[in-house]
Amino acid sequence: MVMDRTITVMGRQEWLKPIDSALQRAISGAFQAAGPVGMRIKDILNGVWLGHPLHPALSDVPIGSWTAAAVLDVLEATTGRKELGTGADAAIGVGLAAAVPAALTGLADWQYLVGRPRRTGLVHGLLNIGATALYTTSLLLRRNGARSAGVVTASMGYSMVLFTAYLGGDLVYRDRVPVNHASTEGMPRRFTPVMAEADLPEGQLTRVDAQGTPVVLLRRGERIYALAATCSHLGGPLHEGELHDDNTVTCPWHGSTFAFENGHIIHGPATIEQPVFETRVKDGQIEVRLAR
């Protein structure tokens, strides 16, 4: 398909790398410089509090508003009813107001991407800025009596929005951004032996395999904890992460922190809790199964 080839070509544009790298460093640096407040803001923008990425939900508002405006513009042109044009103007205003939080949450998600997805996401964001500028211009033209020019400008903006929406869908469905990378599908529901109890060290992250599912074990005295070893955010290896004294682990890729006790998210950017396994020792073997 033409669209797929276009996205492939965009992903190969190496000249974008210095731009996206500098922007990514700037965003991450701003959050880090703000300390605990910055971390809290980042968690809010990522949607940790919602248990779902926030950007997809917010991005629907400007797209829906500008779609409504396009329909109302067409109806006004075909029926001559001026009140429909008033509704189109209002819909454009709603879309512009919603574009700001949608952009902020999009940047919060984008900062963790690498390679082709990062370049695709950069183009997605830049084109959305262009579309927002066109809609701002359209609204000003309408309010200054140049309604026909405003409708044409809005049509250009809507065409751009449709393309950026396609790019966003490609990031989700092809690159799995920002979907759950620790789905419980296929994880063992029955107790499965993974290693000898005598071989599990105290207070160290230990990766094992449970019927094809990577699992990270942690021994604390007589207690053995187990989490899925693949981070739900973007698939980072939790067994290579940082273990804390409060029995939490921080992903080495993007800093999501989870509790071994129940998989709860202590800090994002992950928005989906980590799968937890029940553990037992039988005949000297540690066995795990997905917690019920």
Q: Which key features would you list for this structure?
A:
4-stranded antiparallel β-sheet, alpha+beta, elongated, 3-stranded antiparallel β-sheet, 2 domains
Describe this structure in words.
By secondary structure, this protein is α+β, with helices and mostly antiparallel strands. The protein has 2 domains: 2-173; 192-290, 3-layer Sandwich (Rieske Iron-sulfur Protein), CATH 2.102.10. Helix content is 51%, strand content 16%. It is built from 7 helices and 10 strands. A 4-stranded antiparallel sheet has the order 5-6-7-8. Strands 1-10-9 form a 3-stranded antiparallel sheet, with no helix packed on it. A 3-stranded antiparallel sheet has the order 2-3-4, with no helix packed on it. Strand 7 and strand 8 form a beta hairpin. The longest helix has 29 residues, at 82-110. The radius of gyration is 24 Å and the shape is elongated. The model has no long low-confidence stretch (mean pLDDT 93).
Short description:
With 292 residues, the chain is an alpha+beta fold.
How are the SSEs ordered, and which strands pair?
Blueprint: H1 2-11, H2 17-33, H3 35-46, H4 54-79, H5 82-110, H6 115-143, H7 147-173, E1 192-196, E2 206-210, E3 213-220, E4 223-228, E5 242-243, E6 248-250, E7 257-259, E8 265-267, E9 277-282, E10 285-290
Protein name: Rieske (2Fe-2S) domain protein
Organism: Sphaerobacter thermophilus (strain ATCC 49802 / DSM 20745 / KCCM 41009 / NCIMB 13125 / S 6022)
Domain Rieske: 192-288
